[in-house]
What we know:
Helix 2 (24-36) crosses helix 3, helix 2 (24-36) packs across helix 12 and helix 7 packs parallel to helix 8. It is built from 14 helices and nine strands. The two termini are 21 Å apart. The protein is of the alpha+beta class. The chain has helices at 2-8, 24-36, 42-51, 53-56, 68-77, 80-94, 147-158, 177-185, 199-214, 287-297, 299-310, 324-342, 348-357, 359-366; strands at residues 103-111, 122-129, 134-142, 167-170, 189-194, 223-229, 235-243, 258-268, 271-281. It has a nine-stranded mixed beta sheet, with helices on both faces.
Amino acid sequence: MKLAVAIFKGLPDHRHDRGLNHSLVNIVVMALCAVMSGADSFPEIQAFAQSKQEWLRRFLTFRRVPDHETFRRVFSRLDPTAFQSSALDWIKQAIGGKLEADIISIDGKRLRGTSAHEFHGIHMVNVWAARQALCLSAQAVQGKHNEISTLPSVLDTLEYLELAGCIVTIDAMGTQRAVATKLMSLNAHYVLALKGNQETLFEDVQEMFDDAARRLFADTDLLGVSTWDDRRRDERRTCWVLPASPDLDDHQWPGVQSVALIESSRFVKGKRVSQRRFFLCSFPANPVTALHAVRTHWEVENKLHWVLDVAFAEDANSTVVDHGAENLAVLRRWALNLMRQEGSMGAVNKNRKRAGWDDFYRERLLQQLLPPPT
């Protein structure tokens, strides 16, 4: 807990000193402990802090617990960039200084509860590290179409974590030359989904694979690998890759070395449904690497977005005032990261309840703020 206080003591406090009853550090630390322990709203954060006053006073000094309106007001005004920076500092410490050969997935998630108040709602652009099982960054944008303009800022943030040697995967909305250029400057590789938003490039890549099929794969550099998943829905996948041909030079795409086609099929309501997806890759033709990167990209949905919705009720939260929604989202990701680092088995929603009941378990989660042993 003392380390949590040290991590957050550098946060800028823009409140007036006159009449100030609660320190910013106390408010943030109370809120983090509450969110880890099952609180999903500001009134619930207040209720947790009131029920755990004796435990909190072992580490914090305060006369009384802030009310929920104080929590709401402070988090709506807290600088989200500074709050995110505190999270990044801890993440860099937790991963030992830099990411190594990880697959980094970038994807947007809409906070559905905000759509009732704002036409487009708030979107969080999340960054997930598969091997570390950590959410590295989360930045808010107004409306899904603004995710494109936010990606360069996200990559600037990730530069602090040293992406050299990692593979970054992004959906078709992020397939932009500026994004590819930035990743190359960071010495990172990419696998970028290719769809109709890159119309002529999409058509040329599609023609490359169609031409190889017409020639029955003879005299081509086509490489392929297949997998079969029979656990639930009999899903078959085949990944084909080709070196980027001179025909793609006209597109002047930064760093592209190969293109990939993934053909998948599965049973849906008794019928087999097939799908073809195309990707740009910045590494030499390797179907195993390309397929692994594409499959791993979905961990951002399964291990982050789904967990935030089911275990943290993120979509049900309707906070919209100023920076409140973004800062609450960062708190939830702080809590989830600490749980992932602690490593207890079981569902996240069960462990959140356990953190609310068990002071020792909650303290063990906070111990994940400590630097890893050298």
